[in-house]
Amino acid sequence: MSAHWLGWLVAFPALMSLLVAACGRWPNLRESISVATAVALFAGIALFVEPVTAGARPSLTLFEVLPGVGLTFTLEPLGLLFALVASGLWSVTTIYAAGYMRGNEEHAQTRFFVCFALAISAAIGIAFSGNLLTLFIFYEMLTLSTYPLVTHHGDVESRNGGRVYLGILLTTSIGFFLPAIIITYLITGSITFDEAGLFGEAGLSVLGAGALYALFLYGTGKAALMPFHRWLPAAMVAPTPVSALLHAVAVVKAGVFIVLKLSVYVFGVQFLADTGASELMMWVAAFTVLGASLIAMTRDNLKARLAYSTVSQLSYIVLGATMASSFGILGGGMHIAMHAFAKITLFFCAGAIYTATHRKYVSELDGLGYAMPITFTAFFIASVSLIGIPPMGGIWSKWYLMEGAADSGHTAIIMVLALSSLLNIVYLLEIPTRAFFHNPRPDTPRNWHEAPWACVIPLSITATGCIVWFFYPLPFLKLLAPWAP
């Protein structure tokens, strides 16, 4: 495949958003174009799997602003993995969004699908970034394109949530990420991603390396490390398909993907291991894993509970990066995929429950499993995958993360991961338990049933994916082969 295709693949969803906007008066055509665009994007990205797995690193520079500094796209295994997950799940999310938006008679549906396409375009730009400048540009584009989605309802609560969302993400990126890029350029003379890292010969002190690493990770606000995590629960005011986009398809996955990419291609795994520069942020991630899980246990609002679950689960991937171990990178990369399928299923289920019953609190779900067996079975499957129990795909990422902790000598992190799994059981399995084993509330109508098929089919597909990836994790392992044992 020619490297010129990289530019077209990044631009394709944005260009098609113009056609989506032009078809706003014909909803069926508008949504058909959205789904077709998603499928075509995934197919185009998939064509690069074989050459990248074989060792090719296609690269395209559109223009330069300084010698060696320009808008550059380069495809490598981590970026390809993120691009495949984002584009693949965009297809089912678009189908789900059509059913949800119509079922709830949401306004401004055309604007919704246009912004959705722009967000995916930005996510693919992040995945294909060949240097820190390109990464920063598309990171900001993703923030700005998702802001109208977060504030979609237009009420006071949505506007307040949008201000928190935009305020934290822009403050961290401009205040931390951008200075970190400038410092990196001044020290190394380069901001181009390198498989050997950029700091090997720079003579950077341990303290300086640790401070710069912390600046990068906190600058990546989309990774939702505490205390810069509040934007994520605040964004739950958005429609459920947006929550799925935020938590599984694009935004948070972009954040943790960037953490992995910075660790591998800017600092270098060996440099982090030799200097211990990532040690502090590893414990910040461990605190976030447990702290967010404890908060999730206290939330009765279903989407809020899932939001704090996401904050916790994202830090699994940050842990994988900060362990400074090949096993950790492998586990973090696997968790990008496994968490994506499980978490998008959980949010699809939450949206289906709201569409069918207009209930959004955990305490209101008693006995609903009899009316919505498919939805709550899918919720159970995805929950078990996040917990890390066979035969669900989530076991693989947790296995390699624990291997990484053992390999790097951080045995306490194994205990953090194990305790987090126990907390996951408490706050996730309560939902299907209430649905299937509690008596229905007295005010539950007898004629309630599953949400529209456009909601139920996507959640069934993604739940099935949680099982399939347990038995067939090979596609992800092949992509992540550079970090395999």
UniProtKB/TrEMBL annotation:
Positions of transmembrane segments: 6-23, 35-58, 78-100, 112-139, 164-186, 198-219, 256-274, 280-298, 310-330, 368-389, 409-430, 451-472
A cellular component term, taken from the record's GO annotations: membrane
Pfam families per UniProt: Proton_antipo_M
PANTHER family: NA(+)/H(+) ANTIPORTER SUBUNIT (PTHR43373), NA(+)_H(+) ANTIPORTER SUBUNIT A (PTHR43373:SF1)
Protein topology in the membrane: Multi-pass membrane protein
Domain NADH:quinone oxidoreductase/Mrp antiporter transmembrane: 129-422
Protein name, UniProt field: NADH-ubiquinone oxidoreductase subunit protein
Stretches of the chain forming a coiled coil according to its record: none
EC number: 1.6.99.5
Broad enzyme group: oxidoreductase
A single MF term (Gene Ontology): oxidoreductase activity
Keyword field: Membrane, Oxidoreductase, Transmembrane, Transmembrane helix
Subcellular location: Endomembrane system; Membrane
